[in-house]
Amino acid sequence: MDAVIGLEIHVQLLTRTKLFCPCRADYFAAPPNTLTCPVCLGLPGALPVLNKRAVELALRVALALGAQVQEVSHFDRKNYFYPDLPKGYQITQREIPLATGGTLSFKVEGQKKTVRIREMHLEEDAGKLIHTESKTLIDFNRCGVPLVEIVTEPDLRSPREAREFLRTLRTLLRHLGVSNADMEKGELRCDANVSLSVDGGMGTKTEIKNLNSFRAVEKALSAAIEYQWERLSRGERVEQVTFGWDDSRDELVVQRVKEEAHDYRYFPDPDLVPLVISREWLEEVRARMPELPWERVARWAREYGVPEREAEALLAEPARAAFFEEVAKAIPNPKAAVGWVLSELLPYWTDEEPPLSPADLALLIRKVEEGTLPRNKAKEILEQVAKKEGTVPELVRAAEGSVLRDEEGLRALAAEVLAAHPQAVADYRQGKIQALGFLVGQAMKKAQGRADPKRLAQILQELLRE
Questions:
Q1: What's the pLDDT at 422?
Q2: Could you give the CA distance from residue 377 to residue 358 in angstroms, rounded to a whole number?
Q3: Is the dihedral of CA 117, 118, 120, 124 positive or negative?
Q4: What pLDDT, on a 0 to 100 scale, did the predictor assign at position 128?
């Protein structure tokens, strides 16, 4: 039996205000119920006005996915009653969405996979329920925040594929500048539908609502597949169930069992005119599109020699990618920037900003590449800067002054190391080139990291040839 998986992904768009009103959309850190107005609360007589910026950000996503943007789309009311929905309906697009079609490719276990997009539409978010031991509280700040919903075709075949697809989509959204796509904050949420295919046909669908982490997506889908498999293997019928996911217990929680889809009584919103996307407007959006992640990967490989895996790690965060690019442009060997950014710098990179500028890291790398600053000393300087114990230029000047460059002193040091390690000398002379690295390491250790490693290696080779 094969798993057949489709996703419905909700992305909060990075706008200053909400989708249909002037309330601020940055609700996450605001006190509860302080970012509301008659429009987003659905009070009598309030009329919605569409946020143009939200439409432009959604168009970016459509263009990046290669979707067909509809010249005319419509807004509908999705009617249901829930405590966090003060209007009693949600404004969305059902009959004629903003865009249809498109694809997104990603890699899983080294294999390329392409998922088709069914449709993309704009809609407003609901509020947020906060559960305590004794009661449930409601925060309406999130009501009306703009969302773009991306619905895939059922092209995914495993929980691992679903996780990697979402990871690739998040990278794309961040590089487009349309969303922070922080799953912990609910800025990227996913409903997953899964069924087990029996004899090539589609089985009964199981739905899992509001998954907000890559781990949750993979684990919840695995649990839903196991739930269906157990019943089918016993010859039982799989019921159409909607689950939630309990992260603390790693288990599915039944929300409702249903035979038929819920009747939301959709009808066109009478307060909103059709959304018309002119060819001129679409081309303006296209002209302002940033470089797409896969285009950047190809360019970095071509210009800087960056391997694909390292490029993807750099691209996971747009700020990290931009930082790397600036460093790479400022040094003779751009590929050297990869290891410094991913291995040495990341432990000191806080959520807010890196501890030094791209120019400062480029200075450190250049000094190491030139051989005027040992790598270990450069790493020490990076740590000192992160602790605010000095600036890169002043610490580099002080470190360079302590580096041993005296030829006579370096030769004496090299001779002493060769005499102390006759086996390594014999190994090198028998063709084991890696022995040179060991000898350089021993010399640097003896010099307490203050010697020029490049010159030391040259002197050691000269003495070994004598």
A1: 84
A2: 18
A3: negative
A4: 93
Domains and CATH numbers, the chain: 2-281 (no CATH), 291-402 (no CATH), 407-465 (1.10.10.410)
- What pLDDT sits at residue 151? 98
The tens digit of pLDDT for each residue in 357-400 reads 999 999 999 988 887 787 888 999 999 999 889 999 999 887 76
Cβ-proximal residues to 112 (8 Å cutoff; 6+ apart), any chain: 105, 106
Nearest to 146 by CA among 318, 23, 6: 23
Residue 437 has what pLDDT? 80
The pTM of the full predicted model, rounded to 2 decimals, is 0.85
- Cβ atoms of 46 and 38 within 8 Å: the answer is yes
Burial of 401: CB neighbours in 10 Å, binned 0-12, 13-18, 19+: exposed
Report the DSSP beta bridge partners of residue 404. Answer: 451
Q: Rounded to an integer, what distance in angstroms lies between the CA atom of residue 155 and that of residue 316?
A: 24
Query: Does residue 363 contact residue 381 with C-beta atoms inside 8 Å?
Result: no
- As a whole number of angstroms, the distance between CA 59 and CA 277 comes to 9
- What was the pLDDT predicted at 420? 85
What does the DSSP 8-state code read for residue 356?
Answer: S
Host H or E run for residue 192: strand 188-197
Distance of CA 395 to the CA centre of its chain: 34
Compute the C-alpha angle 176/180/185, nearest 5°: 155
Ranges of the chain with pLDDT below 70: 1, 198-201, 258-262, 352, 400-408, 448-450, 452
What crossing angle do the helices spanning 318-329 and 293-304 adopt, rounded to 10°? 20
Amino acid, res. 466: E
**What DSSP element (H or E) covers 59?**
helix 52-64
